[in-house]
Design a protein that fits this description.
The chain is an alpha/beta fold. The protein is 33% helix and 22% strand. It folds into three domains: 17-72, no CATH class; 105-164, no CATH class; 170-379, von Willebrand factor, type A domain (Rossmann fold). It is globular, with a radius of gyration of 27 Å.
Length: 388
């Protein structure tokens, strides 16, 4: 058979790779400065203006009607996801095997040691011929018969290889957006993880991933928001803060505190809507809770409580919500960003969280976050911190 290569019928040929992905320096700029950086692009020099027009023609940027402001297109976001995933995989150690491995033998996945009896529905491709014949010989010999003859292998003789069970997963990624996440490029690392993880999960049709950003309050993040979301600005440097306001007035107070309690509430409700029996929360944070929600039983009104230095009430509320998540079958993986060696006292909270939820804890710098969380998702080989 001969193959002839030529142009498409419309005469345009293949799309150059430069039109599939934006300049990596531009992507890094957008990740670092978010919407503010995107809005600043039209004010830059002529070379940047030419780049903007090229990206608009390539379908990666578009101008909003009426305002003329630049906006990322779905194609641009998918390109950023793909590049983030490639970058993360390049850093992972060689030999990492893909899949969601279970410790139970199952009917799909990679073969493992040993065989078992055939069950209705097992694929015939998993049949172990030599073991099946041995089973037939053993059965006939125990009855004083000669070796098996054609057509004398019974269903009870059939043996299939054991395989590692591969299961679907529903994941909620909780991304700390408090003011301190702007230091050491932590927010950039967290966003790259989110983008890369979304690209990877797309390869598993039954898997789902939801993103929740949290600072003084928490909210779901849509995929198109991930490249542009930023840590909240720090609005006070007071050495002590104790505030309590109705939740509906949260936008009128300090936005940069850490409300993991609210994020866990949203994660529990989100995962309850997912059909997968395997639900997991990934927490990316650089500090212990400094905010929590409370309510008045008589009226049902919810309040936002901000507390710095961290209060025992915020810690207790957060841990209690984590236990509720665990009681609903949600497993925990916490990723503690520890670039600041002098500020390590908050890790005691992560230890409490890990102990109560029987979860896994990772302690890493921002530059190591991507490999840690992707490897956790891919292989299940977590560097578990055990608290007996």
């Amino acid at each position: 058979m001969s193959v002839i290569y030529g142009e498409y019928e419309d005469g345009e040929g293949f799309v150059p790779s430069g039109e599939l992905f934006a300049d990596p320096r531009l992507e890094e700029f957008i990740l670092r400065y978010g919407q503010q950086g995107l809005d600043a692009l039209p004010e830059m020099d002529e070379r940047v203006q030419e780049l903007i027009e090229e990206l608009i023609r390539a379908g990666m940027l578009e101008r909003q009607e009426g305002t003329g402001k630049l906006r990322l297109t779905p194609r641009m976001v998918r390109g950023m996801e793909h590049r983030a995933l490639r970058e993360i995989f390049r850093d992972l150690r060689a030999g990492v095997r893909e899949g969601h491995a279970s410790r139970w033998a199952g009917r799909s996945g990679e073969r493992s040691d040993g065989t078992r009896g055939y069950q209705y529905g097992d694929p015939l491709s998993d049949l172990d011929g030599p073991q099946t014949l041995r089973n037939a010989y053993t059965r006939r010999a125990s009855r004083g018969a000669a070796g098996p003859q054609q057509g004398l292998i019974t269903a009870g003789d059939l043996a299939v290889f054991n395989t590692e069970a591969v299961t679907d997963a529903a994941i909620a990624v909780l991304i700390d957006l408090s003011g301190s996440m702007a230091r050491h490029g932590r927010h950039v690392a967290a966003k790259k993880v989110a983008l890369g993880l979304r690209s990877l999960v797309a390869r598993y049709p039954l898997d789902t991933v939801d993103f929740i950003g949290f600072a003084s309050t928490a909210e779901p993040l849509r995929p198109e928001q991930l490249p542009l979301v930023m840590p909240k600005p720090i609005t006070t440097t007071a050495w002590q803060v104790r505030l309590r306001v109705p939740l509906e007035q949260a936008g009128q107070t300090h936005p940069h505190f850490t409300n993991l309690h609210h994020a866990l509430q949203l994660a529990r409700r989100t995962l309850a809507r997912r059909g997968s029996p395997n639900k997991q929360v990934f927490i990316i944070t650089d500090g212990q809770p400094t905010a929590h929600l409370s309510s008045v039983k008589e009226t049902g009104v919810q309040f936002l409580n901000l507390a710095y230095p961290p209060s025992p009430e915020s810690v207790r509320a957060t841990l209690a919500e984590a236990v509720r998540c665990r009681q609903q079958g949600i497993t925990f993986s916490s990723f503690a960003l520890i670039d600041d060696v002098e500020a390590m006292e908050w890790l005691g909270f992560i230890e409490q969280l890990t102990r109560l939820t029987r979860g896994s804890a990772f302690y890493c710098a921002a530059g190591d976050l991507a490999g840690a969380i992707l490897e956790s998702y891919i292989t299940g080989k977590k560097r578990r911190v055990s608290f007996e």
